[in-house]
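Case study B.
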Amino acid sequence: MTTASIQHRDLAEDIRIVTLSGRLDMLGMDEVALRFTSLTAAVPRRIMVDLTGVSFLASIGIRSIIESARALERRGGRMVLLLGDNEAVKTTLGTTGIASVIPFAADEAEARHLLAA
Amino acid sequence: MTVSPSQTDSGSRAVDPVEFALTDGAWAVRAASQWLVAAGRSLGVPPQPLHRLEVCLNELLANVIEHGGERARSLPVRLDLRSGSVAGPISPDGRASRNVLQGEATLTLSDGGIRFDPALHTPAGAPARLADARPGGLGLVMVRQLSDAFSHRRERDQNVVTVRVRWPKPTAGLHGG
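Model:
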């Protein structure tokens, strides 16, 4: 049973959008964590992580995002989280204080703007 | 998953407690989560507070699996959910002065792991730089932030953790302060 999924597309030479969907709990992260780490560690160094289709986000998913963002930063890259109107994910992420270090964007245009800053 | 609620002596509504073996790890957490959502819906807990409670349950079970030791993983975890009404300030931070009737859901989780009192856990503040962000320890921070009350007691060699979430009831408020 697949409960989480991951896809990606490259928007430009150095901008990649990685889309996570479904339940990012322990089971869901078992399914997508390795692929997520690998996609965010590849050549494009500006990564937009689209969480608009995530129905449930546990700390194990947030840990994975933080670890990838830190690795990206060490390589001179940057990550932005695209949340859209996903209030459940916004509420969960809001408890952790990570908005101060990984910016949130409401839409793709804002995410591009933040990645270019 | 079908769960049938019943009325308790104290006037609250409850569902039959369930037990989950954590030997299945992530699958057990998922099954517990599915039970909670079905039970919460049957008790009339609205989606937003039910989601907060579901995140808390996931984090607490992950904590038991990760830190509870072999005994915690070999003994079943017991879950109990009930709902009722309380009078109190409408906002979780207590800023509202007028008392109103609130809905309340209480989840009690009992595990046989090593003694663990979340009150002794000091949550890290928000990081100023990404390099300072601590990937670990987020689970309890999330439970504290998403619940309206969170307590621990040690009973019969078990950790008994209680998490409460509240929400404004759409009925007329009580007169007060």
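Residues 48 and 80 of chain A are 5 Å apart (CA to CA). The remaining cases will be described in the next quarterly update.
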